[in-house]
Task: structure prediction
Amino acid sequence: MFKKILIANRGEIACRVIRTAQKMGIKTVAVYSDADARSPHVKMADEAVHIGPSPAGESYLVADKIIAACKETGAEAVHPGYGFLSERTSFAQELADNDIAFIGPPINAIAAMGDKIESKKLAEKAGVSVVPGHIGEIDDTEHAVRIASEIGYPVMMKASAGGGGKGMRLAWNEQDVREGFEATKREGLASFGDDRVFIEKFIEQPRHIEIQVLGDKHGNVIYLGERECSIQRRHQKVVEEAPSPFVDPEMRKKMGEQAVALSQAVGYYSAGTVELIVGADKSFYFLEMNTRLQVEHPVTEYITGLDLVEQMIRVAYGEKLPLTQDEVKLTGWAVENRVYAEDPYRGFLPSTGRLVKYRPPEAQFRQAPFASSEVEKLSGTGGSTSLDTNGERDIRVDDGVAEGGEVSIFYDPMIAKLITYGSTRIEAIDRQIDALNRFEIKGPGHNIDFLSALMQHERFREGNITTNFIAEEYPDGFQGAPASDELLRNLAAIGAFAATAHADRARRVDNQLGKRLDPPSEWQVKIGDKIMDVSVSEEEITVDGKDVNLSTEYTPGDSLILATVDDKPLSVKIAKTADGFALNSNGATHKARILPAHVAQHAVHMIEKIPPDLSKYLLCPMPGLLVALHVEVGEAVVEGQPLAVVEAMKMENILRAEKNGVVKSLEAAQGDSLAVDAVILELE
Result:
């Protein structure tokens, strides 16, 4: 077996690979840029090598620096993780030329499958169904318009070398093609160094389902079931699960056998994923093959009991697969949510900044079947785990950040992956809700509320999902998950309990004038438009006269309350406000005004502050670069008209007019770096 391997990546995937290598007794080498000098993966590895400035193009994407680090440290093999150099044939070739093993597939397979145009031709030859479309090169926008018209709208424009949701545009009409074709080319060039674009028919009401394959150098290839990845936003996966609630055993067998046939056609070995688009009639079509480890691989690990990273390392060393297709068994259900640094309340715009607080939920259930038998505490250092007597775990956090660290503008905005396991799909989903309630992040914006809302959504829980789910269910954006009357009642009880604790602490302060008064026992709690009367005593808590069986502990200053209400667990993140608390639970923050009952009667006389009207300003919604400004002073604009383009995290965001008006002034110029909420222009 290899004695030392280098991980040519960063963040959570670097930490993930290091954990498995440590379990196997293999020494590890981390590489890092300026921005990652104090990152967890650097601390976890046995050795670390600095490879350059923060931009990926000057560090993680420079093959020569990776190879130099291998030679400097004596690393025998390289695991590329995902992204960066993981699917670049030239990198794999350079490693081979320097007698360094590549922990991944053969070079010819990367080349064949890495080009979306060529991979579709190969898939057709292998007897795999492909989506109708134009798989040749496209000359220019006019050529793209003609092709799209011939295929029939809607169509999808994709960068040939794209991946991870980047370099993709959905076009419903000719105008969409004209607006999006050049942008797709630019994104492909910026992210992958290749501006070729192809166009294919967009399957309406589609599901995105993928097959995990695993092969060795002895000609064996197996499939490890499927993953459902239909919950996406801007073609970026948000939620993944295994197995799929849509796939039956017969369909699984057909998809798996086609995936294996395609893999064998290119002599594939290592871990790989065949992505399919699936129609409502259970027809399926080849999209692409990812010749690397997928972000969502943990859900497959849970239901199969295999450590895919370990298998990749063993295959690279020349070992045979440890099981045959007949021995693959799928057990239980696993769900993964991607915790992103983005603000769902502001159109999911990217967010960056320092992690003032980062407390992932403790993995207090069962450890993953492939992990070490020792109790681990890796919170904030690439993962969070702990064991009970069963030695198994039903919750897992894969991360590569730590409290005090920074979510940088230079890399992907993913903070962590939260994975839960259950014997049934609903059990795994409910564990997600509970774990998300206990996930504390302060600093950059994050999507935890949105993820919780998805887990509670009845349509998702029924398994009635497509890639259009988010667009269909949240057409006007996300404003928090709706709260039931039961949840509001429970929050009122917890809020009043906390208010009593604060009042009790206040009365104990020394050197106060007069007699120490007992804390109030009667409270009025207002959450939204709902007003509730709460009584708190040592014996009981009542809300509007009804008993609430609350069991919890709280000390003023705590940021998380772990409670049991009427024998059901409820975790609430809590923060003090001027007249109560902000209570976050089950996908929304509820501002609770909590006043002693004898004071509350006067609250009606308080004047509410009206927020200023900002509709006349075009504000920069996220930190980014102003790459285009489409209007001039005095120009009339109409609602929906593109006004400016801001680039953030290699994605171009078109800012449109929210109303009709005339441009009064321009406050920024093309090429400016803008902060969040910076004024770009003002309308009359």
